From TrEMBL:
InterPro entries xref list: 4pyrrol_Mease, 4pyrrol_Methylase_sf, 4pyrrole_Mease_sub1, 4pyrrole_Mease_sub2, rRNA_ssu_MeTfrase_I
Protein name: SAM-dependent methyltransferase
Lineage: Bacteria, Pseudomonadati, Pseudomonadota, Betaproteobacteria, Burkholderiales
Gene3D superfamilies per UniProt: Cobalt-precorrin-4 Transmethylase, Domain 1 (3.40.1010.10), Methyltransferase, Cobalt-precorrin-4 Transmethylase, Domain 2 (3.30.950.10)
Keyword Methyltransferase recorded: yes
Record's keyword annotation contains Plastid: no
Gene Ontology molecular function: any one: methyltransferase activity
SUPFAM superfamilies: Tetrapyrrole methylase
Biological source species: Ottowia flava
Length: 264
């Protein structure tokens, strides 16, 4: 009787934060060599976007030889509804992640990857991690950049008590209501509120925050993290109002991926 092959692992592979940005940092400047080498040996992937995964693997191949050529990599995308609704919590997309992990049950390491940063953190993928645990697979998070943590550390806000709240509503009245609800929570508990937005709406969100928050609340915006010219500004809302009144939407390069945070 043939022995059952040992199971592969699920590796959580972080990627550079420069997706959607004008420039790129050298891969070895933002990812440890051990992470790059681990990615180079993976031939099976569960991906947020196959095109961006192939682009990442080409960058990996420039640093460490790929065990499997990019064209031969097995890349399976998460369902699109997982991007829109998420794959965890109320109202989330139903993803049968166990089927995605079939290669790991056959003995292959599988990489979980998003377009930027750590998968399953402010990105889909938690259903895959859960399924790996339920199947008895080893889950190995690799070291790399996480935009939320970098922004929080650079904000001067409470790093002991914080929450990531995802995206705020797009519509003006609903967005203002949500901003004020979160501000009340932050002022009452000291909890920092972290959130993100699609880059082309960053400027509109910044204006809404400057107008909707109380003057003394501290608001931080971080963009271009790990790039050659990162921008992190953290100051009271009254100072943001003065800045935006003088400079308008040109108060900073907020047209690229950014993390917003506020608190007392």
């Amino acid at each position: 009787m043939n022995a059952t092959p040992p199971h592969g692992r699920l590796l959580l592979v972080p990627t550079p934060l420069d997706h959607g940005c004008d420039g790129q940092s050298p891969l070895e400047a933002v990812l440890p060599l051990a992470t790059v080498q681990a990615a180079a040996h993976i031939g099976h992937w569960i991906s947020e976007n196959a095109k961006s995964t192939r682009a990442f693997l080409k960058r990996v191949g420039d640093v460490a030889p790929l065990a499997t050529p990019v064209q031969a990599q097995q890349i399976t995308e998460l369902p699109r509804e997982a991007h829109k609704k998420g794959d965890h919590g109320p109202g989330a997309a139903r993803v049968d992640a166990r089927a995605l992990l079939a290669p790991a049950l056959q003995g292959h390491d599988v990489g979980l990857i998003s377009e930027a940063g750590m998968p399953a953190i402010a990105d889909p993928g938690s259903s895959v991690v859960r399924a790996a645990h339920d199947l008895g697979l080893q889950v190995v998070p690799l070291v790399g950049p996480i935009s939320l943590m970098l922004a929080l550390a650079a904000s001067g806000l409470n790093g002991q008590h914080f929450a990531f709240v995802g995206y705020l509503p797009r519509e003006g009245p609903a967005r203002l209501q949500r901003i004020q609800e979160l501000e009340k929570l932050a002022l009452r508990t000291g909890q920092t509120q972290l959130f993100i937005e699609t880059p082309y709406r960053n400027a509109a969100l910044l204006q809404a925050l400057a107008q909707g928050l109380q003057p003394g609340t501290r608001l931080a915006v971080a963009s271009g993290l790990t790039l050659p010219t990162p921008q992190v500004r953290s100051q009271a809302v009254r100072q943001w109002r003065a800045l935006l009144a003088d400079a308008g939407q040109a108060a900073g390069p907020w047209d690229q991926p950014a993390v917003f945070a506020f608190g007392p």
